[in-house]
Amino acid sequence: MRFLFAACLLVSAASAQAVKPKDVREAGKGGSAAIPRLTEYLKDPSTDVRVEAVKQLTELRALDALLLATRDNEAEVQLRATDGLVNYYLPGYVQTGFASSLKKVGGSIKSRFTDTNDQVLDPSITAREDVVKSLGALARGGMGMEARANAARAVGILRGKAAVPDLLEALRSKDTDVLYESLIALQKIRDEAAAPKFEFLLRDMNQKVQIAAIETTGLLRNQGAVGDLIEVLNRAKDAKVRRAALGSLAMLPEAKTRAVYQQYLTDKDEKMRACAAEGFGRLRDPADSAMIDQAWQSEGKPAARVSLAFAMVMLGRTEISEFSALQYLVNNLNSSAYKGEAQPFLMELARNSSVRTALYGPMDTGTKDEKIGLARVFARSGDKESVPHLERMSHDPDTEVAQEGLRALRNLQSRL
C-alpha cells in the first residue's frame, strides 16, 4: 500500500510539472531571449506543446529552431514548421498558408489546399540552402500527404532549386495534392533539366495533375515532348486538357507545330484561337504577319485579341500608338480579367530591346496599374538602361507605384 501511495504521489507530481501550451505562450513573451527555452519545448512529449512552440518560434523568426521542428514525427508540427520557414522569408505567410486553416477531426488533420498558388520569393532574396533541403526532404517523405504537399508548395515559393531531386521523387506519389504542388513548384523554379523526368504524367488520369504536367512541360521548354503533346491534344475529350496541350505547344514552336497552329487559329473556342496565335508569334516568321493582322482585325473576343496582339508584336509591330497591338497589351494591365495574361506576354516581349524602348513611355505616362505592371515587366526583362526609369518610378507621388518601382529596381539589379 505504501508503494502504491508513493507511486501515486510521483504521478501527481509529474502531472503538476507537465508543461502546458499556455506556459509556452507565456515563455514566448520573452522575445528573442526565449528562443533557447522554446527550442527545448520542441522535445516535449506533448504534441500540443510542440505545436505551440513552433507558433512562438515562427513569431520570433527563429530559423534554426524551425529547421529542427521539420524533423518532428507529427504531421501538424511539420506543417506549422514549414509555414514558419516560408514566413521567415515572406512575412505574413502564416496567416494564409495551409496550416492557418488546420482542424483536428478525430485523430487526423483536415484542411484544404487552395488553387491560389502564385506566391514566389523575389529574385533579390535567396533562401538558405539548408532550409530548401529540409523542405525537400519533407516533400519526399514527410509525415503524411498534407505535410508533403505543403512542403512542396513551400519549395516552390522559395524557388528552391536544391530540392528539385526531392520534387521529382515526390512525383512518384499517388496523392493528387503532392503531385500538383510538386509540379507547380517546378514551374516556379524553372529548372529545364527536370522536364523530361515527369513526361509520364502527361497522360495522368487525374485532370488537375494532367493539366499541371502539361503546362509545366511547356514552361520548362521540353522540346522533346512535342510529339506527346500533339497526341494528348488529338485524343483528349476534355476542353481544359486540350487548351493546356495547345498552350504548351505554343511555347514549343517548331516546324511540325505550325500545322497545329494553323488548324486552331480559326477554331470556335476562343482560347484555342488564342493559343494558336501565340504559337505563330513565337515562330517569328514574317510571312505570317498578314494572316495574324487579319485575324486581329476580325477577332471580337478579348482573350484571343490579347494573344493576337502578343503575336503581332513578336512579328515586329513594336510601335506604341493609340490603336497599336503593344498599346493594347499595356491597356490590359488595367483589366482584372486579362492583366494576368498581358503582363507575362509583356515580360516575354520586353526581352527585345525595341519593345523595351517603346515601353519606357507608358512607364512615365501610364495609369497606376500600368506603371505597377510595367515595373514588374522590367524587373524580369529589363537591362541596365531600364535602371534610371525604375529609379524615377521609385519616387512616384503614388506610394504604391513608388514601392513597386523600388522593388522592381532591387530585383533587376540583383539579376544584372
Give me some keywords for this one.
416 residues, mainly alpha, two-stranded antiparallel ribbon, 2 strands, 1% strand
What can you tell me about this protein's structure?
The protein contains 23 helices and two strands. The model is unreliable at 3-16 (pLDDT under 50). The chain has a two-stranded antiparallel sheet. It has 416 residues and is mainly alpha-helical. The chain has helices at 2-17, 21-28, 35-41, 47-59, 63-69, 75-89, 129-141, 145-157, 164-170, 176-189, 207-219, 226-235, 239-250, 255-264, 270-283, 289-298, 302-314, 325-331, 339-349, 353-365, 368-381, 387-393, 399-415, and strands at residues 103-105, 108-110. The chain is globular and about 80 Å long.
Cα-based radius of gyration, to the nearest Å: 26 Å
Structural class, by secondary structure, is mainly alpha
The count of strands amounts to: 2
Q: Give the low-confidence spans.
A: 3-16
* Helical content class: 55-70%
SSE topology string? HHHHHHEEHHHHHHHHHHHHHHHHH
**What is the distance, rounded to the nearest whole angstrom, between the alpha carbons of the first and last residues?**
79 Å
Report strand %.
under 5%
The overall pLDDT, averaged over residues, is 92
Overall 3D form: globular
Biggest sheet strand order reads 1-2
Largest sheet: 2 strands, antiparallel
Question: How many individual helices?
Answer: 23
